[in-house]
Structure formats: C-alpha cells, structure tokens
Amino acid sequence: MIDKNNISYKLYVVTDRSYLHEGETLVTAVEQAILGGATVIQLREKDASYDEFKATALDVQKVCKKYNVPLIINDNVALADEIEADGVHLGLTDMSITDARATLGEDAIIGATAKLVEMATDAELEGADYLGCGAVFGSDTKQDTTTMTLGILDDIVNAVNIPVVAIGGINANNVSALRSIGIAGVAVCGGIFAHKNRTKAARDILCNLYSRPIVQCITNHVTIESVANMVLSFACSPIMSHNINEVVEVQANASGLYLNLGAADDYEAMKIAYKTALDNEHTVVIDPVGISGISYRREFLKEILGFGAPTCIRGNVSEIRALNTDADTSYGLESCDDNDLDALKGVVEDVANTFHTIVVASGVRDVISDGTTTVVIESGHAMQKQLTGSGCMLSAGICSALCMGNVNYAPTDNKNMIIVTSVCQEIGDAAYRAGEQTVADDKGIYSFKTSLFDELI
Questions:
Q1: CA 146 to CA 134: how far, in whole Å?
Q2: Which pLDDT tens digit goes with each residue over 270-290?
Q3: How far is Cα 348 from Cα 369, in angstroms, rounded to an integer?
Q4: In sequence order, which residues have a C-beta less than 8 Å from that of residue 260 and are 6 or more positions away?
Q5: Closest by Cα among 417, 405, 446 to 10
Q6: 339 in Cβ contact with 333 (< 8 Å)
Q7: What distance in Å separates the CA atoms of residue 422 and residue 85, rounded to the nearest whole number?
Q8: How far is CA 419 from the centre of its chain?
Q9: Neighbour-count burial of 343, counting CB atoms closer than 10 A to its CB (0-12 exposed, 13-18 middle, 19+ buried)
Q10: What is the pLDDT of residues 312-367, one digit of tens each?
Q11: pTM for the complete prediction?
Q12: Going by DSSP bridges, is the β-strand pair 366-369/374-377 parallel, antiparallel, or unpaired?
C-alpha cells in the first residue's frame, strides 16, 4: 500500500467506461491518463455488480502498481478492503468515515465529499485524509449535481488542514480559473476520458493549472517552426534561443533543453546551454543530426558528452551507429535502416551503457534502450521519410514529455524510459493515422504534416 502521507492530488482521475471506444479497455484508458501525469486514479463503477467491479478493480490495480499511482475505490469499502486498494472515496450517503476507517485501517486513504464548510470540517474531524469538493463547473457525469461557487471552495480550503480536491466539469479550458485557490489538485473525468488522446488531455490540464514547463530549443533552422509546434503539442512552452549572450539566462529559467546538431553555427551557444542545463539538473535531449557523415559534428558531440550525460539521445539508425563506432556510417547524409534487429538492439544498448542515457534509434521501427531494458516499437508511416524534420519533431516531443513527466509526484526506477517509449508510440500512432488518411484523400506531404499535428490533439 502506498504511503498516504506522500500522496500528490494534483491530477486525480475518475474513471468512466461510458467514454470508451469500441474494443477499448478501461485499463488502456487508465494507463493513457497516467502517462499524461495522473497522480491518483479513482475507479468508479456505478452500474457493475460486485464481481464485475472486483474484476475491473484488479485489472486497474495492476497498472496503477506498475506506475506507483494510488488506486482509490469509489463508495465500496468492502471491495477496497478485499483487494487491498490504497483507499476509498465516500459520498454523502455512503458508509461513515469512522466505520470505513475501522474496516480499512489507519494506513488507508479515505476521501470524503464535502459541499459546505461544515461538511468539510466535520469530515476532517472524523478522520478524512482529503476532501472532494464541487461541482465547481457543473458535471458531465452527474445530472442532479449542484454547482459550488469558487468562493465556497476557497472557504473550505481555508477551513481545513487536509488536501482539498476540486471536482466537477473540469477540463483544460476552464481549469486555469482554479489557479488562485489553494486546492491540492483537481479531480477530472470527462475532461480526460472523453478525449481521443487522453495522455495529451492530462498533460494539458496539468500545464494549464500549474504552468507550462519551458523547453529551450537550439535546433536546425529548417525545422524551428515544426519543433516549436511539437513542444506546444506536448504541453510545454518553446523558446528558440540561439544567441550565445542569452542562453545561460534562458536555460536557468527553463525545465528542458533540446539540442539539434544540425544548428552547426550555434555550437558555442550549445556548449554553454548544455553545461547550464546539467548544472540545474534539467531534462536534456540531444539529436545528433548528421554525425553519421560529418566528422566535425561527431567530434563536437564527443566534446559535450564529456561534460555529463543527457537524459536522452535520439537519432536515426546511421547516427546511433556512428556514435557507437565513432566512424562514418552513412551514404551521404542519409540514414540506412537496419534489417538485423538483434544487431541494432545491441548497438543501441551499447550506446546507452557507454553514455549512461536513454537512446532512441528511430526509423521504420524505433529501438529504445536505457542499457538494461530495450523496447521495439513498430509504428509510424512511410510518409514521415518525406517530411523534413520528422526526427527533430520526435526529439522535441520526447524532451517536452520528459519535462511534463516531472509533474508526476511518483518517480519509478524506469520512469524516463516509460515516458520516452510512450512518446515514440504516441507520435508513431498519430503518424500512421495521418498517413493513411492523407493517402486515402490522395493528398501530399503538407497535408500529412497538418494531419499529423491534428492527430496529436
């Protein structure tokens, strides 16, 4: 059971299977929300039998344990006790907090609904660990609910000493209205589950409530706009600072750094920014563009890697091979896809271990390794090869998602590896859908690029 004294309620996600698409499982939807930064999952199954509720709870519990995210059971104390869930949430007509505590013990998380200050203070005295208060913007899931004014919500926050979570109709568009109130977090259902991309929906809510992490990008001039838009797609704010006189100040106020070696005119600025990022323990992603055919770039990369390890290196197959062999590995500057998967996995693992970082060799398939775990993703679309900067955009997405991942309170040993893998899958799947639609419509590469960004929404 998770330590209830070390819980973050920043993004408390309440499930609703009515939003699931045909053939989709609740476990998949929950995992998508967690990958976007969900810090608590509440399983709500109003119409299920006990046995159905239990079966679903056990499946969801597995994914919650995988990511070290607490699982709260809605209403059903007996079920929470039987499966040893992390806690239970009690509505106004459910079992009393005192009786639930007697059943579940002192280590369980017990949440209570409170709509008035008196309800909140009574629940705290009875032993509630947190309060769910709303509905602050109405509700998509409860038609008979009454709206709570932000003034009452603020009064409740000031009246109790336990975390208060706002609930009711919250989404990425309205959540910023809650910034000035001292809530511990927001509880969201339809604002995440109703979206095609639930991972992005979760990221957007977090960044709109708590602010967007800033990612400094020193990138190839050809891809600046695409990179900036990809950073925005992953809920961060891009700043393209290439001037050697400002990079220290900019990086000191950022959360991440994306370096693209295609910006060869800016190597001195890169060095300064990289050192500043390492000193501040910022997320750093390096894109070793062109090192497979240009020795000057290989030497520069070796120099900056000597300063310390980045969070991730993302390159095409030839570039990762060049980093492994310190030699020219390309025909011109083109990537060569490697049909020997086992050999490629070995190369990626070697580079990850050599430089103590996560490595992504992207192409027809993406091979990802942290030196211990290696994952292969079969996704994407052939049209990506026709789009200038598709690899740059992937690197920028990885950097941004890693920065957003720092919002999640519960780090696990392989957290960054999970995030990098999920971004490769997310962008690859979006590219596949965009490519298929572009081909079906008999359109070209610019339509594909637009559709790709649309699919990431």
A1: 8
A2: 999 999 999 999 999 999 999
A3: 6
A4: 217, 218, 219, 220, 223, 227, 287, 289, 392, 395
A5: 405
A6: no
A7: 26
A8: 6
A9: exposed
A10: 999 999 999 999 987 766 644 445 555 688 999 999 999 999 999 999 999 889 99
A11: 0.86
A12: antiparallel
